[in-house]
Fold this protein.
Amino acid sequence: MITGSGRGIGKHVAIACAKEGANVCITSRTIDELNDVKEEIEQLGNDARVLVHPADITKIDEVESMFKGFQEELGPLNAVVANAGWSRRSVTHEFSSETFASIMNVNVLGVFNTFKASYPCIKLDEKKNPARFIITGSAAYPTAMPKFAAYTASKYAVVGFMKALELEYRKDYITFNMILPTMVDTQLLRGKKAGDGQKPPTVMDPWDLNDYYVFLMTDWARKVSGYLLDISELEKLKQMVLEAPEDAQQDEEKMKDYLKEKDERFYKQLRKLRNLASFFLEKC
Ligand SMILES: NC(=O)c1ccc[n+]([C@@H]2O[C@H](COP(=O)([O-])OP(=O)(O)OC[C@H]3O[C@@H](n4cnc5c(N)ncnc54)[C@H](OP(=O)(O)O)[C@@H]3O)[C@@H](O)[C@H]2O)c1
């Protein structure tokens, strides 16, 4: 189940999950965009089911009735991606209180609403295959962005929220992780220019993030929890793994040695995600 899946990052995560054979539930406020995503998934021609339910993530009643509907159709959910978000740029003293509150409502309250409403509808207590709760954060945590003070504050807030959830709901076998993208070619970053083929080279395409979301939902990541996936760092790891010598690609221990030798500081940071290297080799 992916929030904010009518366009941008969420849309591509939904398509990637469906390609893996998962049934997907998609939501945002714009029904036309959701129906387009549904059609795109149906055209894949596999058996993945797509359920659509428009809802405003800031309104708990709408979010609760959406999750109930999804659960009635599909049974308990395996994974929830709290991805919906928005932002506005302005010098902070000229920002309106309404816009500040609205950003906090979507980016923080929206994640709370997603968790609260999903909790009764997710698969609990499966030690071998824990439920996954994934949040789309931002590289604005920890690198604050001037003129994006409200957005930065909201992305700092969800990190604290996730860390608290991780401690509180371990007992239920739910993993909590966050993806921290940098710049991605979506409406949030580039407005109507998103997808025009003119993005600067430092800006990623939204589908470039799919591997990280899919990884977190696979068996490879069943023990990964409480982790903030810094996408620009992990892209370096992906490059290193895919360029590793043949013998390292075929032997986990040799891959470890190779990565350690290449960049020990970086390797240490990534130890918890060591399976990600194996995932890249199998998938990419
Ligand atoms: N693009 C980047 O450079 C970048 C970088 C770092 C992090 N992120 C994060 O990535 C996430 C996805 O953003 P994106 O870049 O893919 O932007 P996007 O293309 O604008 O997509 C945002 C999605 O969130 C939905 N949404 C917004 N407000 C909502 C509300 N009140 N209720 C329900 N759904 C709502 C939007 O649909 P409706 O408007 O139709 O409701 C849309 O489907 C966000 O959390 C964002 O902070 C993006």
User: Anything to note?
Assistant: The chain has a mean pLDDT of 95. The two ends are 24 Å apart (CA to CA). The pocket of NAP is lined by residues 4, 6-10, 28-30, 33, 56-58, 83-86, 106, 136, 138, 181, 183-184, 186-189 (CB under 6 Å). The chain has one domain: 2-231.
